[in-house]
Amino acid sequence: MDRKEKEKIITGLKERLGKACGTFLVDYQGLNVDELTKLRRELRKKGIEFQVVKNRLLLIASQDTEADILRDYLAGPCALAITYDDVVTPAKVLTKFMQDYEALEIKIGQINGKLVELSAIKRLAQLPSKEVLLSQLLFSLSGVPISFVRLLSEMPRRLINVLEAIKRQKA
């Protein structure tokens, strides 16, 4: 590659890393072209970018971004999975693919500027999807107003019961 191509790649990568909420560094060595294409296709379906990048270019592009903390793990062939909103989905896809193809190895990840080890990525992959979590939250939040209304309606009922008991006692 000539200098202009490298600058173009660095600029585009830096822009994407600046927008990303999570990135995962993957060692893909040992995967054949078909397997790598299958992984790319699966990630692309979920809205996750997957790119094989030279370590030097990634090192330069990640400066002044949250992905800068990955610099110590840039050794050997690396690929980068970039997500912009949901960090659970790439963790699920990469973990499942890692189970199916032993050649794939998740080196490290970063979520909002914090390093995430492989064990944490595996735990993250066990979480329900974003939609399921949101529906569980909505269900939990809807329980609060219902309980509050029950509490408010219970107070006048108890007051009436107390007044009825006083009335019977005096009669």
- Spatial ordering of strands, largest sheet: 2-3-1-4-5
CATH topology title of the largest domain: Alpha-Beta Plaits
Major sheet description:
5 strands, antiparallel
Strand and helix order: HEHEHEHEEHH
Strand residue content: 5-15%
Q: Count the helices. How many?
A: 6
Question: What is the overall silhouette?
Answer: elongated
- In CATH, what is the class of the largest domain? Alpha Beta
Structural class: alpha+beta
Helix content: 55-70%
Alpha-carbon distance between the two ends: 101 Å
Q: Return the CATH architecture of the largest domain.
A: 2-Layer Sandwich
Tally of DSSP β-strands: 5
In round numbers, the mean pLDDT is 89
How would you describe this structure to a colleague?
The structure is a single chain. The chain is elongated. The model has no long low-confidence stretch (mean pLDDT about 90). It has a 5-stranded antiparallel sheet with strand order 2-3-1-4-5. It folds into 2 domains: about 5-125, Alpha-Beta Plaits; about 130-170. Helix content is about 60%, strand content about 15%. It has helices at about 5-20, 35-45, 55-60, 90-100, 120-125, 130-170, and strands at about 20-25, 50, 80-85, 105-110, 115. Helix 1 (about 5-20) packs across helix 3. The protein is α+β, with helices and mostly antiparallel strands.
